[in-house]
Amino acid sequence: MPDAITLLESDHEVVEGLFKQFEAAGPKAYKAKQKIVDKIIRELAVHAAVEEMVFYPATRELSPDVEDHVLESLEEHHVVKWILSELDGMDPQHERYDAKVTVLMESVRHHVEEEEKEYFPQVRKLSDRPTLEEMGEVLASAKKVAPTRPHPRSPDEPPANLANLAAGLLDRIRDTVSGRS
Ligand SMILES: [Fe+2]
User: Fold this and answer.
1) How many Å apart are CA 150 and CA 144, to the nearest integer?
2) How do residues 41-84 score in pLDDT, each as one tens digit?
3) Domain that holds residue 104
4) Separation of 47 CA from ligand 1 center, angstroms?
5) How many domains is the chain built from?
6) pTM listed for this prediction
7) CB-based burial of residue 8 (10 Å sphere; 0-12 exposed, 13-18 middle, 19+ buried)?
8) Which of 3, 33, 65, 75 meets the CB 3.0–4.6 Å disulfide criterion with 136?
9) Cα 27 to ligand 1 centroid, rounded to whole Å
10) What's residue 122's pLDDT?
11) How far is the CA of 110 from the centre of ligand 1 (A)?
């Protein structure tokens, strides 16, 4: 079982791989681009939700020193979730589509760099292996039930955001019905 930070960093790698696929797709490869974007939406929706439900509050519990990182991350997630929600169901032939994905990728890459260069190393220093491993287990379980769609209007801090698990169940049913899972 990977520890919390290893798990979150491997999520980042998956998303970066999808970004590279999008960048490599031809401008008129509308179907392919939409498929990639659907995967990006799912990956980022789940990733953001479990960070907000588990990792951010848990690390805040470790030390108030991480507060600034957590608060900035929440705002960055908020912006990312709005872009994802606009891309969800958007026609890939729309003239704003590629630009929206480009801005999404810029925002996420910036967010990932801050987390990996500043926030995660700080958490490693403040924590220990057993704690990070336990957090990793909780994150992995949360990933199985977290929302698969962005919910930018929903609460992003505990305890209110735990209600998003109900949204997660509905998202997963929608994914199954629409054949997107
Ligand atoms: Fe994040």
Assistant:
1) 16
2) 999 999 999 999 999 999 999 999 999 999 999 999 999 999 99
3) 4-178
4) 7
5) 1
6) 0.93
7) buried
8) 3
9) 28
10) 96
11) 10
